[in-house]
């Protein structure tokens, strides 16, 4: 895998973990206000293990962004600011976790023993103060999440050529619209300049990595203009049929694609040629072989 592709995949994973953490923080905020919060949900958000969404996010950001040898030393870049924001977010969330744990675990037990002496009363005062600070820390955490989300958008805009990023957002579009608080069309326009362009990048990425059924589903689900949409579906369905063991259906689809698509992206042409050559090598019945040869000639 090329270095750029590897990097884009890691950023896409960082984006997914951020969205998970963001939604958890929103749930925690609502549950805290209604006094229905449980510690298990807090632990899912922040902790010192891979089970915590914010811990994974922090570790991934540090590993990818802090040791980037190509980063400029003269100015702070978008990815570095995002990394710093995630670090601050993790520490604020840990403060909230510790405060929540202390106040919910010990306050009820101490209240039941308040008559046992001045030390218990002193601890109760400390815990009451800690409860106030815990709520303040929770509010600060939610504010930091929103600011970090905005910085993530800036970072993603610098990767507006990435089919990996477009695909990740469109595959989880419902969560993306909740986290980024806008429609899918608005989000794609903000990051990629145009929603149609984002859809094309996502479909092309799926086809490039052999996810033909998913590419077909993506075209059906998102807005793509013609003739790109119908051409992409014809090609993706044809390739999917070949790998499903249906060479005749694959040839039907490729003939349709070749007839429709006069531009024929180079990568798609290479993939089509590869399976047509395999058809000839595998010695299918003469009629299929003749059709495969005709398509090879047409593709040049």
Largest sheet: none
Given helix and strand content, the structural type is mainly alpha
Tally the structural domains. 2
Give the C-alpha Rg.
27 Å
Shape assignment: elongated
**How many alpha or pi helices?**
14
Give unreliable regions as ranges.
none
> What is the number of strand segments?
0
The first-to-last residue Cα distance is 28 Å
Average pLDDT number: 88
Q: How much strand content do the residues show?
A: under 5%
Helix content: over 70%
The sequence of SSEs as H and E is HHHHHHHHHHHHHH
**Oligomeric assembly:** single chain
What do these coordinates show?
The chain has 300 residues and is an all-alpha fold. The protein has two domains: 3-159; 226-299. Helices cover 78% and strands 0% of the residues. It has helices at 3-33, 39-45, 53-65, 78-111, 118-157, 163-171, 173-180, 184-192, 195-208, 212-221, 228-243, 247-260, 266-281, 286-299. 34% of the residues are buried.
In short:
The chain has about 300 residues and is mainly alpha-helical. The protein has helices at about 5-35, 40-45, 55-65, 80-110, 120-155, 165-170, 175-180, 185-190, 195-210, 210-220, 230-245, 245-260, 265-280, 285-300. The protein contains 14 helices and no strands.
Descriptors:
single chain, elongated, 300 residues, mainly alpha, 14 helices, 2 domains
Q: What topology emerges from the helices and strands here?
A:
Layout: H1 3-33, H2 39-45, H3 53-65, H4 78-111, H5 118-157, H6 163-171, H7 173-180, H8 184-192, H9 195-208, H10 212-221, H11 228-243, H12 247-260, H13 266-281, H14 286-299
Helix pairs in contact: 1-2, 1-3, 1-5, 1-6, 2-4, 3-4, 4-5, 6-9, 8-9, 9-10, 10-11, 11-12, 12-14, 13-14
């Amino acid at each position: 895998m090329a270095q750029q592709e590897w990097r884009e995949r890691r950023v896409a994973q960082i984006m997914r973990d951020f969205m998970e953490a963001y939604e958890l923080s929103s749930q925690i905020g609502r549950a805290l206000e209604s006094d229905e919060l449980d510690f298990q949900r807090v632990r899912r958000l922040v902790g010192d293990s891979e089970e915590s969404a914010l811990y994974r996010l922090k570790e991934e950001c540090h590993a990818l962004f802090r040791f980037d040898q190509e980063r400029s030393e003269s100015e702070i870049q978008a990815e570095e600011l995002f990394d710093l924001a995630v670090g601050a977010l993790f520490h604020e969330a840990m403060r909230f976790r510790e405060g929540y744990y202390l106040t919910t675990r010990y306050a009820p037990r101490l209240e039941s023993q308040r008559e046992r002496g001045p030390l218990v009363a002193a601890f109760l005062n400390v815990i009451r103060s800690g409860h106030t600070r815990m709520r303040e820390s929770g509010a600060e955490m939610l504010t930091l999440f929103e600011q970090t989300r905005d910085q993530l958008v800036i970072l993603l805009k610098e990767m507006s050529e990435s089919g990996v990023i477009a695909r990740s957002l469109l595959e989880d579009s419902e969560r993306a619209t909740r986290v980024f608080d806008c429609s899918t069309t608005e989000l794609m326009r903000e990051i990629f300049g145009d929603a149609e362009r984002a859809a094309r990048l996502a479909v092309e990425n799926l086809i490039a990595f052999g996810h033909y059924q998913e590419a077909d589903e993506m075209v059906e689900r998102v807005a793509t203009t013609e003739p790109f949409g119908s051409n992409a579906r014809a090609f993706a369905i044809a390739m999917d049929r070949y790998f499903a063991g249906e060479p005749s259906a694959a040839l039907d689809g490729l003939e349709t694609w070749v007839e429709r698509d006069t531009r024929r992206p180079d990568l798609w042409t290479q993939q089509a040629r590869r399976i047509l050559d395999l058809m000839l090598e595998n010695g299918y019945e003469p009629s299929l072989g003749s059709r495969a040869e005709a398509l090879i000639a047409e593709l040049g």
